[in-house]
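Assess this today:

___
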Amino acid sequence: MTNEEQLKAIIAEALNKLGASCSANEVIVTPSKDLAHGDYACNSALKYSKILGKKPLELAEEIKSSISSELVDHIEIAGPGFINFFLKKESLSSVVKTILEQGDHFGDGKNKNQKIDVEFVSANPTGDLHLGHTRGAALGDSVCNILAKAGYEVTREYYLNNCGNQVEHLGHSVRARYHELFGEPLDLGDDDYHGVDLIKIAEGIKEQYGDKWLKDTKESHDFFIEHGIEVELGKIMKDLSDFGVHFDKISKESDIRAGSTIPDTIAFLKEKGYVYESEGATYLRTSDFLDDKDRPIIKKDGCYTYFLPDVCYHYEKMNRGFDQLIVMLGADHFGYINRMKSALMMKGYSPDAYEADIYQIVRVYKDGEEVKMSKRTGKAITHRELVAEVGKDAVRYFFAERNGDTHLDFDLNLATSHSKDNPVYYAQYAHARCTSLLEMGKDMIDDSVSPVLASAKEGDILKQLAQFPSMIEAAANARAPYKVANYIQKLAQLIHEYYAATKIIDRDDKVSTASRLSLIKACRIVIRNALALLGVSAPDKM
C-alpha cells in the first residue's frame, strides 16, 4: 500500500469515528505543490462538514486529533480547513523499496473480477489503414493495457465486416484486375476499388492459379471476394502487428449472418414487442429507450440493414460472459451509441454494459503546413507511411497523449526532433539517463539499505512515484491514456531536473549515493512501466 493509499485509509477511519460513512476511495489526497504546506493535502473537512454539522476548521481539528500513525510526522490545518500532512522522511522514501520489490508489477491493481471486451480498429478489409484507424489502434490498445494493469480481464477484439456492398466491390475489382492480366479491357465501376495494390493481388492469383478463375461462376465470384479479403486482412494485421497491436479474437460478420442467429434474434425482439413494420420496412423501437428515433433493421427489399447484424454481434459478445463492452469509434459514429445501448437494453442489459469512446480526426503538418497527400502515391497518407517515416514509438505516443475526443494535429517535424520539446524523446531520454547513471554507479548500488532521501527534489520524485498506482486507477476509470502520458512527462521532467541539480554519484559518500541510485532505479522501473502502457519502448541508450 502506497503512502497515498495509507493516508486515505487513515483519514477515512478518522471520519468514520466522527460519524461519517466514508470509504478510503472517497477520500481525496493530493501531493502538495509547496513543501511548506506538507507532503500531502486533504479537503475532507470541507467535504464532510455539512454532513456532520460542523464547521470545516472544527472538523479538521477533530480529524487531526483522531489520527495517530507512524507514517505521519505532524499535521497542520490551513486556510478554510485543508489538512496538510508532513510525512516522516523514511515513510516518504518507503515507496522506493516497494517499487524495487515489485518491479514491473508495481501499480498492478487488485483483481476486479470483471471481464471487458474492447473492440477497436475493425477496418473494412478493402484497403490500407488510414490515420483514423491509427488513432483508434493507439488509443484502443493503450486502453486495453491500462485496464489490464488496473486488474480487469481484457479481451482485444476485431470485427471483420466481410459481407455487404464493400466486399462485393472488392471482389469485382480483384476480378477486373485479374482479367486485365489476360488482355481483357479493365472493367471497373465508379464504386469499385481503383488502387494499384489490387494489381499485386491479381498477379498473385495468376501466378498461383493460372487461368483457372477466368470463367465467371458462383465459385469464381466467391473466390475473388474471399481471396481479396484474406490478402487485405493479412496486410492490415501485419501493419497493426508492426505497430505493437495484437488481437485475442477476430469475429466475422459472415458468422453472425450464418445459421439462425439473425432470425432467432428478430423472433425474440418481436416477442418482446420491439419490432414493427412501416411502409414495407421493419423497424426496431429504439426510441422506447435512449435513441432519438426508431431504426430500420430490414429494408423494403428484404435485405438486412447493417444495424441488425451489429445487434446480433453485440448480443453474442454479451453471451460470452463479458461484464462490459467497449468500442472505439470514429467521430462519424456518434449517433450509433444510443441505438446500440437501446438494443442491449431490450435484452435486459444495463445501458452501462455498452460504452463507446469517440476519437476525432487527425491532421498531419510539416514545416507549418498541412500535409494531406503522400508524395509517393499522391493519395492520402496511410498508417503504414506515417509509421515508416517517424517510427512506431512517436506515432503511438503522440496519438495517445491527447484526449480522443479532441482533434489531433500531428507535427512531423516535432515527432522526429531530438529535443526536450518532443515529448516521447524527452520521456525516453529520461529512461536512458537513468540507465546510464545506474551503469556508471553499478558498484555503489545497495538495494538492501533502505534509502533516506531528504532534498526537496527527491521529495517531489518520491511523491510522483507514489502516485503511479492511483494514476492507473484514474486512467482506467476514465479510459484515458492521456493521463498516463501526462504522468510520464511530469516524472521525466523531475528526473531531468534532479540530474541537473544533484551530484547523484559521489564516491566520497557511499551511503547517500546508494540512496540516490535506488531512487533512480525506481524511476527507471516506473517510467518503463508507464511507457509500456502506451505501447512505447524504453531504450537504454539514446
